Amino acid sequence: xxxxxxxxxxxxxxxxxxxxxxxxxxxxxxxxxxxxxxxxxxxxxxxxxxxxxxxxxxxxxxxxxxxxxxxxxxxxxxxxxxxxxxxxxxxxxxxxxxxxxxxxxxxxxxxxxxxxxxx
Length: 119
Hints:
The protein is an all-alpha fold. 50% of the residues lie in helices and 0% in strands.
């Protein structure tokens, strides 16, 4: 594992993430095919894309898995609501430690007029 992966996904985050990511069944017919890319490396690559502003295709090869693998895993985890569950366990963990500062919380909304009476 690279230093970049460890920096983007520190051990504490990795422990919380493993609590919410669905287990995967790795079945390779007759033992063939490629080894499945590690979830920690994929998570680090997703965090890199989200925080750097690069596109999936611009993902540096330092993470290991190619960008289509990272994108597919992102899409699957999105369908499985992994991100919502991860936010929840992070907030629960921080709240249990007394480390949430709600005085800096902001709620935002956007209102858009419905065209043709909302139909």
